[in-house]
Amino acid sequence: MKRQLILEDGSVFVGEGFGGSNYQMGEIVFNTGMSGYQEVISDLSYCAQIVLMTYPMIGNYGINRDDFESIEPAIFGLVVSEYCEYPNNWRSDESIDTFLASNDIPGLAGIDTRKLTKLIRKEGTMKAIMADMDVDVDATVAMLKAAPYPTGQVAQVSTQKAFQVPNRGRRVVLIDYGAKQGIVRELSSRGCDLKIMPYTSTVQEVMNLKPDGIMLSNGPGDPRELTQAIENIRALIGQIPIFGICLGHQLIALASGAKIDKLKFGHRGANQPVMNLLTGKVEITSQNHSFSVNEESLANTDLEVTHRNLNDKSVEGLACPEKNLFSVQYHPEAAPGPEDANYLFDTFMRVMDAQGGNK
Ligand SMILES: NC(=O)CC[C@H](N)C(=O)O
Fold first, then answer.
1. CA 53 – CA 200 distance, rounded (Å)
2. pLDDT digits over 317-331, tens only?
3. Residue 359 falls within a domain, yes or no?
4. Which residues does the entry assign to the active site, renumbered to this chain (predicted)?
5. Is 246 tagged catalytic?
6. pLDDT tens, position by position, 181-225
7. Sequence-ordered list of residues with C-beta below 8 angstroms from that of 38, at least 6 positions apart, any chain
8. Ligand 1 atom 8, closest CA
9. Whether 174 and 293 share a structural domain
C-alpha cells in the first residue's frame, strides 16, 4: 500500500506504508544510529515526532522483550529506506511492521532518506504528516503551515501516579518527564531504592520522601513550557544532590537562570563526540535532543560548562559542585551505543554518599 509523507515546505515523499495508520502531525527529525531502532521507537522523548532513520536497513534484528525504553511508545511515525520483514535474531519476538501495527504507529519505507536528511539539514526540522495517496496535498501543506508545533507532550507521557522500584540502597526520587527505562536500569543496578514520581509532584511531596538524591529524567518537547517544574527544581536545588539528563539538564539550566535555544535540526544518534572538559577525555555518546543551553546566558548563573559537543561546540554538560548539582545533555544510560558516559551514574552515587546518603 502506497503512502506519502508531506512536509510543511510542500515536499512530498511517496513510498510504501507499513505499521499502523494513525496519521498525526509531528516534527520530522533524523537519527543517525546504525542500530538501536527499538530504543528509538520506544523512547518517550520522541513523542510528537516522526523519526527518519538514516541507516539504510532498519528492523533486521527485530523487536525483542529486553530493549524497550517505555511500555507504550509515543513516536508519531517512522521513516526508513528499507525495513526488514523477516528479522533474524535469537532475541527477536516480532518485526517492526507488526510492532508498529499493534501500536498503530505509521511507518513509511522506500523513500530517498538521504535526500530527506539533506533537506532537513538545510531547512531545519519542520512539521510533517504521513497520509494516504488520495489526500489533498495542497490543503495538507496549508494545514501544516498554519498549525502550531505540538505542545504538552510531557503531560501525555509522564506517569500519572508515583510508584516504587524498591531496592536496599540510596533513596532516589526519579522525576518522570518521560523517563527512559535505561535510567531506571542504571540506578537500580547500583542498588538505588527508586520512587518514580509524576512531573507535577510538588516540592513538599519530593522532600517528604527524604531522598538522598533526585534524578531529573529525559522527556519530549520544549522545556520552556514546563514553568511549574522549573520553579520546583529551583526550590530543590541546593537542598539535595540532583542529576539531570537531557530534558532534566535543560530544566536545571532554566531553573538556574540560563536560556534555552532550539537547534536547527538537533542531535540524534549513537555516535556524537563529547569532550569532558574536566578530564580532557572524549566520550562517544547517544543523543536525542532539539534544544540546547545558550552558553552566553550561563554568565548569569553559578553553573559551569563541564562537557562540550565536538561537532558543533554546543554545551553538553553543566555542574555546580557546591550545590551537588550536575547534568548532561546526552544519554549516559543509553544501551544502543557505547557506554563511555556510564561513569556519570557512579558520580551521582559518590555525590549522594558524600552527603551522607543511605548506602
Ligand atoms: N531526550 C530528551 O530529553 C530531549 C529533551 C528535549 N525534548 C529536546 O528535544 O531537546
1. 33
2. 999 999 999 999 999
3. no
4. 246, 331, 333
5. yes
6. 999 999 999 999 999 999 999 999 999 999 999 999 999 999 999
7. 63, 64, 67, 68, 96
8. 289
9. yes
